[in-house]
Amino acid sequence: MPGRHFLFVPGPTNIPDRIIRAMSVASEDHRNPTFPDFLRPILEDVKKIFRTTQGQAFVLPTTGTGGWEIALTNTLSPGDKVLAARFGQFSHLWIDLARRLGLEVEVLEEEWGTGASPENILAKLEADKKHEIKGVLVVHNETATGVTSDVAAVRKVIDAAKHPALLFVDGVSSIGSLNFQFDAWGVDMAVAGSQKGFMLPAGLGLVCASQKALEARKSAKCARAFFDLDDHIKANATGYTPYTPSIPMLYGLREAMAMMFEEGLDNVAKRHHHLASGVRAAVAAWGLKLCAKESKWDSDTVSAIMVPEGINGADVIRTAYTTYNLALGAGLNQVAGKLFRIGHLGDLNELMLLGALGGVEMAMLDVGIKIELGSGVAAAQAYYRTANSK
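Predicted structure:
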């Protein structure tokens, strides 16, 4: 099909031409004497993206799932208890991974369409008089349901309970797109992936560890080899990596972060909120609802849109892809078939999103969802024009 494919899933995201050019490099020796001059600034810049001066950043050839494993295995031991809120597919998968690593997971079941409840976490921590809970796991932005949780509020209740548990945060679909404050929020281990806000292909896991987490590593007994941060701490201190890195991806990462700094991290977050607000205006104009139960849960990186009774969300996705060359996100697990998702993160602007909304409207009409053609696009246009004039 002629023209550019419209990629509007919540990851992988569009890769800017500037980053593609930066990654087009010849192979080089990763043990050469000038490599530290290349790697060290990258690791320092990753810290800036996480908003930390106290933590230590690591970049490994893996994905966000690998980042989950890195965070847990480097700080905990088999049999340790962790507390995790489950309110979507990715919180569910992180819980499953923790159990497979030999951890005991106490699950706080939350309604899908909501996020982590600070009140429920506080109750569990206050009841844990012997401090058996070693960590609290929170997915900052749950892409399956389009929900963002309040990480700062979770830290407040951990402190209010005077509990020593580590705070683990999945920021895979938030870091680099939404406001994220590693130091200010008291995060101990945070995980990001290259294929979302960082606008890169999948393949890099970015992890940041607090000094408390690095101290916990010394007594952690979970088996680890490839993901052992001890090896990275030693090698990174000399400006190298413990094994062969993906050098083209590192060049891409450097360029991606340069783009973020040029825009300004606060402006990146504002742009994502601006774009998402236009999508939400379109959803309201269609007469449809988001999966997020209240506006306080709304995600600025992905909107999960509920389809009417009797309609299968998978049909919207299939039609959009096969007829209009538009890729949308599917409903997962409990919400499979009940919704479709529009990813609006990374390298995007208003006109790109308006094109996607136009394709969504045509696909919805094709499968029998009764909307007025152009209503959502017009609502988004009106929002963007009004917001831009302020």
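Summary: DSSP finds 13 helices and 13 strands in the chain.
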